[in-house]
Design goal:
The structure is a homodimer. The first copy, chain A, is an alpha+beta fold and about 250 residues long. Chain A is built from 5 helices and 10 strands, in the order βαββαβββαβββααβ. Chain A has 2 domains: about 90 residues, Alpha-Beta Plaits, CATH 3.30.70.580; about 140 residues, Alpha-Beta Plaits, CATH 3.30.70.660.
């Protein structure tokens, strides 16, 4: 019935609203939890462990997340994808499954990740975007904010924009894209691409940028934090539900 | 503290997913129920009754629904809107509140209503549209379907496309818009405008149109049902979650 395990890459998306984040936690509904449960059924109810390109926090969504595991099944990739679609709940979708080199590491192998943070700019909130966008009807002074976005580009120590440092080796990251894109009067989004992101980094950055747009924080103050790695200002971390892991890129596509 | 009641019109939108429809039902979460509860608080916890342009079924959404009630409150319209926004849950949004003529009847006064039915045409389903669109990845033969949409225009007895007739005076309606609009390869929608709709009519029509697009029902068969008002074919009513009450129009705007 079974085969020797092979390494499979799983590309998936999820609505994070009803998950306590990606990472497995006993007694909580997590993306990793439901994914491992479905995959273990596919290999005859034998448990397995899934790795991902990174964790997303509770309430954060993913348009593209990449996971990998060793799977022992006679099913080919297409059949595994089909079975996963049948077994997973409606708020997780599998885009594709493919067998990869057994050394494939979805986190270390990622060359670039992109996050987007969505703003709902309607006066009273669009009920159809309530799960996926921060309702932010206030006037925004966009120019100083765009100036700060320009400062973020390149290689910096982002320690001043990280939550609990965790056990990362370095807090230096290279930001390759940092934009604010307005779509008409009713919607806007922040787009960030980097070779990696620190804990809560995007939500902390968005919180700071919104304060810049309100004239509460001056761009020069954020530049100082970016240069020194030391945060001496307090601002509110933007809420999780506006954030979406948009893309993860690997050398081989 | 209180004032003589005035007639107020309330324009609202809702995500129907977690409601057992618009119409009040004891022990169920309904849009009317949460709206009446909030409005009664605004007039000092005295109960009231709300009328609407029409009911929407369980799971059906509204981008624009129009409701009205008699409200006794010192608050002006803007304050009532503000209070409603504070009191209502996140899946109902109030667009505006205004005092209207006391004869305003949101159902009988409606000149035209528009419903849209959304299709998610991605191969494996877009998780961010799962609540608001029917996942329908199948190939569609669009031309015969568009032919049927053309037949629907004008004044017809739609009895053959209605659910339980209810206590309507007539099943004749005038359809002023019946279109299928594709947005790229990944999304499409049906748009219907009429001076009124029968029970389940849009979902029954969409179910029939999808069968036409699959070649299962011939356009001529639907024409016969439209001409005779008698339904002798069975097809599946399209599910509620793809449907949205899009607009309600009145003589005075």
């Amino acid at each position: 019935m079974t085969r020797p395990p092979r390494r499979v890459r799983i590309d998936l998306s999820y609505d994070g609203t009803e998950f306590a984040g990606f990472q497995f936690q006993p007694r909580h509904r997590t993306v990793q939890g439901v994914l491992e449960q479905a995959l273990s059924r596919i290999q005859g109810d034998r448990p397995l462990r899934v790795q991902a390109s990174g964790r997303t926090d509770a309430g954060v969504h993913a348009r593209r997340q990449v996971a990998a595991c060793f799977l022992a099944s006679r099913y080919d990739d297409r059949q595994v994808a089909h079975s996963l679609r049948a077994l997973l709940p409606d708020d997780v979708r599998v885009e594709g499954v493919r067998t990869v080199d057994e050394g494939f590491d979805p986190r270390r192998g990622a060359r670039s990740k992109t996050y987007r943070y969505m703003l709902d700019r309607t006066p009273h909130g669009d009920v159809f975007r309530a799960r996926f966008a921060l309702h932010y009807p206030r006037e925004m002074d966009v120019e100083p904010m765009k100036h700060v976005l320009g400062l973020l580009l390149g290689r910096h120590d982002f320690a001043g924009f990280a939550g609990s440092a965790g056990n990362v080796e370095t807090t230096v990251r290279t930001m390759t894209e940092a934009r604010f894109v307005e779509s008409g009067r009713d919607a806007a989004q922040f787009v960030f691409s980097a070779n990696g992101f620190l804990n809560h980094m995007v939500r902390i950055l968005v919180g700071a940028l919104l304060e810049v747009a309100q004239g509460v924080i001056a761009p020069a103050e954020l530049k100082r934090i970016l240069d020194s790695g030391e945060r001496d200002l307090k601002w509110t971390t933007a809420p999780a539900h506006g954030l979406c892991l948009w893309e993860v890129e690997y050398e081989d596509g």
